[in-house]
Design goal:
Layout: H1 2-18, E1 22-33, E2 36-47, E3 49-57, E4 66-72, E5 79-84, E6 94-103, E7 108-117, H2 121-133
Antiparallel strand pairs: 1-2, 2-5, 3-4, 3-6, 6-7
Length: 135
């Protein structure tokens, strides 16, 4: 009896993981705009997606991603976007962004992870001040 119950539980849990929808991206881009980063993506398949969550981490954050934005699903072919204006607080020259899909049944899936290099605003201000001194 115990074997049957444990087997049934495994089958239910395995089946639940297959019930999640699917996402396929047609575009994903991270562009630097002044002191901010604009993250955009477009989907060509959004099956049963409740929302997208954009996550960010810097190397000095103990490898923990932090959610910076969440938005509901709009539908196939629609462009999604977010301007990350909190980048100056990271204190690093590299950031990782991860896009997650959260499906209607609560299952979360990591869709895409990309790294981007940048110069922090503090370094930019210091360099600008040094250049101004010698002009």
């Amino acid at each position: 009896m115990r074997f049957i119950l444990s087997t049934l539980l495994v089958l239910i849990l395995t089946g639940a993981s297959f019930l999640a929808g699917q996402v396929r991206l047609s575009a994903f881009e991270i562009r630097e705009e002044g002191n901010d980063f604009r993250v955009t993506w477009t989907t060509e398949l959004e099956d049963d997606v409740r929302q997208f969550e954009l996550m960010r981490r810097s190397p000095n954050s103990n490898d923990q991603f932090v959610r910076v934005h969440a938005m509901p699903s709009h539908g196939i072919g629609q462009q999604y976007g977010f301007i990350d204006s909190q980048v100056f607080k990271s204190g690093s020259d590299k950031l990782d962004y991860r896009l997650d899909a959260v499906y209607s049944n609560g299952v979360r899936e990591s869709i895409r992870t990309e790294s981007v290099n940048y110069t922090s605003t503090a370094v930019r201000r210091t360099w600008g001040s040094l250049k101004a001194m010698f002009q």
